[in-house]
User: Which sequence fits this backbone?
C-alpha cells in the first residue's frame, strides 16, 4: 500500500501547483484541465470551469501529490495538514520562506522540543503545512 496526498482548491489550483513546484523542486508536473476532457452531455462543463484543474500531479520529495479544483458544493476542511520531515533546518527555512507570503502562522518558525526547526502554518491557498527538521541518521 502507498499513501498519497490529494489537495483540493477553490479555483487557484494551477497557481498553487506552480508555487509548490518552485518551492519544493517538484518533478513530473502534470495538469489536466476540464477543457481537456471529451465533451459529455452527462457531465456538462461551464465556461467558468474550462480553465480549472480537473486533476494534477507532481512528485515532491519522492511522494506523489495529487491536486484539483473542486466545485462550490465541496466543503473544505481544516482537520488535516501536510507534514514534511526535512533533513535540514535550513531547508525548512527555505521552504517556509517560499510559502509564507499571505500565510497564517499557527506556530512560529523556530526550535522546538522535538526539532531543531519547526513551523506550522496555513498557506495563502488554504493548505495547512507542518515543516519539521529531522535528523535521519
Assistant:
Amino acid at each position: 500500500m502507498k499513501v498519497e496526498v490529494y489537495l483540493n482548491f477553490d479555483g487557484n489550483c494551477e497557481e498553487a501547483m506552480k508555487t509548490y513546484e518552485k518551492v519544493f523542486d517538484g518533478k513530473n508536473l502534470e495538469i489536466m484541465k476540464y477543457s481537456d476532457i471529451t465533451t459529455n452531455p452527462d457531465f456538462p462543463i461551464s465556461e467558468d470551469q474550462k480553465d480549472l484543474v480537473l486533476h494534477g500531479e507532481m512528485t515532491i520529495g519522492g511522494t506523489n501529490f495529487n491536486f484539483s479544483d473542486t466545485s462550490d458544493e465541496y466543503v473544505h476542511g481544516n482537520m488535516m495538514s501536510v507534514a514534511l520531515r526535512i533533513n535540514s533546518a535550513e531547508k525548512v527555512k527555505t521552504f517556509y520562506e517560499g510559502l509564507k507570503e499571505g500565510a497564517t502562522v499557527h506556530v512560529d518558525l523556530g526550535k522546538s522540543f522535538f526539532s531543531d526547526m519547526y513551523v506550522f502554518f496555513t498557506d495563502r491557498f488554504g493548505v495547512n503545512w507542518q515543516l519539521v527538521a529531522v535528523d535521519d541518521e
Summary: The mean pLDDT is 91.
